[in-house]
């Protein structure tokens, strides 16, 4: 929130998949038992990096407040549009067949492909590819278009929002 009096502590590359922690600005946080085979670092405000030499570290609010610059909406409105566009992309359900997930990733990395190209690239059986493509079409994750080279073949691509 814009005017909240809080500190956010974000663990990066945590082996235990720890989530960010948001605490009151007056809180004092003590981290201990910090260890890593390759060494651990602390990054402050995304800018300053320090190698940790101790197994214990204290985190608290700095006396000097951070200053932020606000730009006119016109400058960053285009950026928000791009971020929104990326976030509105199709996300497959967890119950999707593994072959459908694989083909979806293949299409997102390689771009549009024919069924024959998908079979050759994925090394999956043609029946499995057909089933996965039908599933992806049913849930609206991909689109099918006729090719101009050969109207008997279709090109499959990730559906654009």
Structural category: alpha+beta
Mind describing the biggest β-sheet?
A: 3 strands, antiparallel
Order of helices and strands: EEEEEEHHEHHEE
Number of helices: 4
Binned, the helix content reads 25-40%
Structural features, described:
The chain has 161 residues and is of the alpha+beta class. The chain has 2 domains: 6-59, no CATH class; 98-158, Arc Repressor Mutant, subunit A, CATH 1.10.10.10. The chain contains 4 helices and 9 strands. The protein has helices at residues 73-87, 98-110, 115-122, 126-138, and strands at residues 6-9, 21-24, 29-32, 41-44, 48-51, 56-59, 113-114, 142-146, 154-158. The strands form 4 sheets. The chain has a 3-stranded antiparallel sheet. A two-stranded antiparallel sheet has the order 1-2. Strands 3-6 form a two-stranded antiparallel ribbon. A hairpin with a 7-residue loop joins strand 8 and strand 9 (154-158). The longest helix is centred in the middle third of the chain and has 15 residues, at 73-87. It is elongated.
